[in-house]
Design brief:
A: alpha+beta; Dihydrolipoamide Transferase; Chloramphenicol Acetyltransferase; 3 domains; 6-stranded mixed β-sheet; 4-stranded antiparallel β-sheet; 18 strands; B: 232 residues; alpha/beta; BirA Bifunctional Protein, domain 2; 8-stranded mixed β-sheet; 5 helices; 31% strand
């Protein structure tokens, strides 16, 4: 039953540490609390302390190596125990990563002998081993990790390898960009917040989207002058109770455009595409600690006032967590609006199995050419995210053209 | 506020001060030393090498002791006129964050220099304290079980030509300066007194501790008591 010795975080802002000195050698007997090695970050050296009694076995990292926080640097085994395996470069599970005063590993979880011995050199066609920091830096700098000689443990590519690799021309990676934010007043080294159910669901659902779903994005700008006029006129007529928002107008226009472009009103299923005949619009609503998309059913059949009433009622209950499951499932297409946060344009993540979502920016007064003159008009940018397995570029563009026409001629919708 | 034992120990040979620090730190880890400690002292001339030192950064060593130690950082020089501070702090009482500790230590010295009328600042990426592009204080710390030792070296009236022996902190072409040079006037002894006071004030303010300061001959007694406790 061996215990792993991890590279510990000397600071929440530390991503990797340099193992400057082993104070115990492989085979030395160690007691809990004994100093095993010294780790440096910035101009501070910290002693890495044994968290178990036994014998230092399988030292995986040489003096002078830089090692990502959480990686195993050695094992402590029972006296005489032989630990053949070990994971030289595998990062520890996330929960353990920042465990500075981390508890001793539970022996039940350890099965080092069962693990294959580390390969001395990574095979040429093997997946490139690299620290998360190195991967991110390589991505930002346009460096092909396969071409980088790793100098970390087990041939792993670490930060300095990427730094010394020939970078793409525009590869200036600001160091501070990689630092985790820090709460200034908090006395603790870190805070672990368990995932709430809603965050778990968001994480799971969005990870099944942007990774596996091949997104592409189309942006169009619509003139909103007439929509604004129509809204004012309608609201005057409706009185205080049933005010119509720009978002309602957008939902109505999206629903109308989908009615004419069934190719975008679809779900991707594993072996087929389901084209929906009804139009149900999911409306992203920010709630405390997350978001939820209540569905406005048959939005294409409803009047603006009905959509407005539905949207208001559903959003209210969404914020109070009072939606029934059937009220936030079954959308055929979604709308996400960040206009109220002064976002000019953005891209939204598709909510699978839907094939598309439009991201609505704020309405901004802009100078636009009008014949020979320049006039100030209220404009709104709409970006559509398309699942390329369902919607092709031209298909999405045709839908957006119709949407723009509807937004610019709102009377046609009424 | 947490109490902080401040010990103004006078001139102490490097090796001896190192023994004190290690004993105090171990006592703090074991809970035998109830308070955090700030050791303030001056060393006879010595060059020390931190854990990331490059031998090539020592240019002349024929007539001076060179000591390799466990602190972070590269090579540095200590000598008369330099105020050396060794905080023995249990960081579990503050923050378990070495970057925070280094930045806060810098801030303590920046505040101290402010009291002395010198505008000092950090130099991003180069740990230490700087004024007008010159380095006035160096840092290098060591931590075990979140208890610190080693610390800072602030040039008060240091003979700056001594830094020509080395590439200070491994930064080529760095120009060192001192409080005396920045202020341009004042007697050495007076300046030393003022500097010690300013450092204690800056340190207490930034770390929010209550200094328990003894001066004069009591120092030796006090240090003796602390060390007795540490070695008990």
């Amino acid at each position: 039953m061996a215990t792993k010795v991890h590279m510990e975080a000397l600071s929440p802002t530390m991503e990797e540490g340099r193992l400057v000195k082993w104070t115990k050698r492989e085979g030395d007997a160690v007691k809990t609390g004994d100093t095993l090695a010294e780790v440096e970050t910035d101009k501070a050296v910290m002693e890495l302390v044994a968290r178990a009694d036994g014998q230092l076995v399988n030292v995986l990292v040489q003096e002078g190596s830089t090692v990502p926080v959480g990686d195993v640097v050695a094992w402590i085994g029972a006296p005489g125990e032989k630990v053949d395996g070990g994971e030289p470069a595998a990062p520890a599970p996330k929960g353990e990563r920042s465990a500075v005063s981390g508890a001793r590993e539970t022996p039940a979880k350890e099965a080092p002998a069962a693990k294959p011995p580390p390969p001395a050199v990574p095979a040429a066609d093997a997946r490139v081993k690299a620290s998360p920091l190195a991967k991110r830096m390589a991505k930002d700098a346009g460096v092909d990790l396969k071409l980088v000689q790793g100098s970390g443990p087990g041939g792993r590519v670490v930060k300095r390898d990427v730094e010394s690799a020939p970078a793409a021309p525009a590869a200036e990676v600001p160091r501070t960009a990689h630092r985790a934010p820090r709460t200034p007043s908090d006395g603790a080294a870190y805070e672990d917040v368990p995932l709430t159910q809603i965050r778990k669901t968001i994480a799971k659902r969005l990870a099944t989207s942007l990774g596996p779903v091949p997104h592409f994005f189309l942006t169009i700008e619509a003139d909103m002058e007439r929509a604004a006029e129509a809204r004012d006129a309608l609201n005057q007529q409706l009185g205080d109770d049933g005010k119509v928002s720009f978002n309602d107008i957008v939902i109505k226009a999206v629903a109308g455009a989908l009615r004419r472009h069934r190719a975008c009103n679809a779900w991707f299923r594993d072996d087929h595409i389901r084209y929906w005949n009804d139009v149900h619009i999911g409306m992203a609503v920010a709630v405390e600690d997350g978001l939820i998309t209540p569905v406005i059913r048959n939005a294409d059949m409803k009047t603006l006032a009905e959509i407005g009433a539905d949207a208001k009622e559903l959003a209210g209950r969404a914020r109070n967590r009072r939606l029934k499951p059937e009220e936030y499932t079954g959308a055929t297409f979604s709308v996400s609006n960040l206009g109220m946060f002064d976002i000019d344009d953005f891209t939204a993540v598709i909510n699978p199995p839907e094939a598309g979502i439009v991201a609505i920016g704020s309405i901004v007064a802009k100078a636009v050419p009008d014949g020979e003159r320049v006039v100030v008009r209220r404009r709104m940018r709409v970006t559509m995210s398309c699942d390329h397995r369902v919607i092709d570029g031209a298909t999405g563009a045709a839908f957006l053209k119709t949407l723009k026409q509807m937004l610019e001629n709102p009377l046609a919708m009424l | 506020m947490k109490p902080l034992d401040v010990i103004d120990a006078g001139v102490v040979p490097y090796a001896e001060a190192l023994t004190w620090q290690r004993a105090l730190a171990q006592a703090r880890i074991d809970g035998r030393q109830p308070h955090d400690v700030l050791l303030l002292l001056e060393h006879p001339p010595v060059v020390t090498l931190g854990r990331t030192s490059h031998a090539a950064h020592v240019l002349r060593s024929d007539d001076i002791d060179v000591v390799e130690v466990e602190r972070g950082g590269d090579v540095t020089f200590h000598g008369p006129g330099q105020l050396v501070g060794y905080p023995i702090l249990d960081l579990s009482g503050y923050r378990q964050d070495l970057h925070w500790y280094l930045r806060t230590l810098e801030q303590a010295l920046i505040e101290a220099l402010g009291i002395l009328g010198i505008a000092a600042e950090r130099n991003a990426g180069y740990t230490g304290v700087w004024t007008r592009g010159k380095k006035i204080a160096s840092l290098g710390v060591h931590v075990k079980q979140w208890v610190t030792w080693h610390g800072f070296a602030l040039n008060v009236t240091t003979d700056l030509s001594q830094f020509d022996r080395i590439v200070p902190c491994g930064i080529p072409n760095v120009e060192m300066t001192s409080i005396a040079r920045e202020r341009g006037a004042g007697s050495g002894e007076q300046l030393w007194r003022e500097s010690v006071d300013a450092v204690v004030q800056g340190f207490s303010g930034v770390f929010r501790v209550e200094p328990i300061l003894k001066d004069g001959p009591n120092n030796a007694l006090r240090l003796g008591a602390v060390l007795d406790r540490a070695q008990a």
